[in-house]
Amino acid sequence: MTENEKKRVGIFSLTCDEGCGIFLTEIFNRKLVEWLEKIELVYFLAIKDHVEIENLDVALVEGVVTSERDKALIEKIRANTKILIAMGTCAITALPSGQRNNFNINQLKEIEGHLEKYKFLPKALSVKEAVKVDDEIMGCPIDREKFINTFEKYI
Amino acid sequence: MHSCNLDVEICKLSKIEGHADLDIKIRDGKLKEVDLKVMENVRFFNQAVVGMQYSAVPQLVSRICGTCSIAHLTACIEAVEKTLDIVPSRQTVTLRKLTTYSMMIRDHALHLYFFVMPDILGIDSLLDVPEDKHDLIHDALAVKEAGNNLSELVAGRAVHAPYEQVGGFSHEIDEEKIPAAVEGLKKIRPTVLKLIDEFSKCDWEFRRKTNFVALTTDDFSFLEGKIKSTSGMEIEEKDYWDHLHKVVLPYSQATSFDFEGHEYMVGSLARMNLNRESLHANTKRDAEKYLAKFPSDNVYDNNLAQAIEILHAIDHTIEILENTRFQKEEAAKPGRLTGSNAGAIEAPRGTLYYALEIEEGKVKSMKLVIPTAQNLVNMKKNVEQIVSGFCALDSTKEELEKNIVREVSKLIRAYDPCMSCASHFLRVRWK
Ligand code: SF4
Fold first, then answer.
1. How large a percentage of chain B has pLDDT more than 90?
2. Count: domains in chain B
3. Which backbone phi and psi does B149 adopt, to 5 degrees?
4. Looking at this predicted complex, what is its ipTM?
């Protein structure tokens, strides 16, 4: 496969612990060399600096959309990728990283100043609630086999 | 010497609970200010745990950090157990050491091979290494995989390990899988020795007098001991908080700390400076000439220290796995359900402290001190020294910018600021 035919893949972290991305680097241990025959990693801040959000074939996204900044980023990703895959329960259900959605009044009172100061959205959204997603991989973190099966459909 | 004005903004510097930016202002050729701004969106764990049943809290706080989730899990479990008089069995303690070692192997390997090595080779990403150095990618993946396999064997998974719980482990080790795990570790041992040698040859240097702080353990197992500092302090784990003062970082979604009124550094270098005598005998034997570099105040020796810690983790794990019979055990039970206490462990990036107040089995409050947060003040002062040094040189404005960005990024990366985004700050935006 020539460089031009390789699928352009980006891996993105919104608000979260990056646990799915880290676990993905463990899945890479056995699969990366084989996948690099078919893909070009154009965005993955964990391992590269020169990154682009442009003309992507597959975007893998972890985390929740908690602030206006997150929202702008996920919209940009959506507009620039053919396939968007939500990775992990945060991206699919907004939990656990969007746990503030379940806070009681006392807990909310404690954090409201912070929410305002840093332009948080009224509620943390899952990636699914924020934009259209084409596929999803459950787990906290993502399940290895499910990831491999889903990802390989698109590359 | 310049008389220029220059603003340098380095975006997405590092992760505390995420991203940080660094802004540097130069006025009339002199450093005016360095702002370390932690920009990550807080996820409010301190609030979320209030009212939760104690046994569920460790698995929740594991979600603070993907890469060192095992450290959060283990430190929180320790704090719960100390608070509720739960005494873990000897086997549980051994399994926790193995779990911690598995994290150190894969986490340090990710940092050294994927974050630092590209700087040494002058490339963007390890994936860009020239053909003749492709072995490096294989080495990196093999070392990480051995750590990952060990996590799976002992704790169920490398990220958010499901078996490690308050009072004990929910699953036994599958003894049939032990020989393969040992073999895997023996196989990567020469690779790790090569990595140590590589980092010992790195001539990067940055020194500034500072204080090093670490939890020191008898067998260098990161879990139980006394907190010591190179300034000569020796304190109990539970008293750590009393020696820290919060330092507010303007514009940031985080706070830092000083220790006894001064900035300090935690992490591998601190551990190597304070506790190297306790390394495994095989590690001391094979890394003798590299260990002669310590104590060291060269921040870049943090990389070498991490590489040596991988070797120690391998050596001690092999010894444990080859000499221990594991058996099924019940979880240890609480002696009471109300109290307050604290626990500290060494996470990959330094001392991690959890303090809890529990009432009738429910958490009333939680305080935690994260390694990277402790290093922020020290990091900022180092950056100031680097920038001032460059300002004093005779160079063009472009050279000045280039030098600052290169050296500052490299230096901060040597601290291994929490998370995969340690390389985020390579992305630079100029004002
Ligand atoms: S789903 Fe779990 S592992 Fe994945 S990003 Fe969210 S908290 Fe982390």
1. 66
2. 2
3. -65, -40
4. 0.94
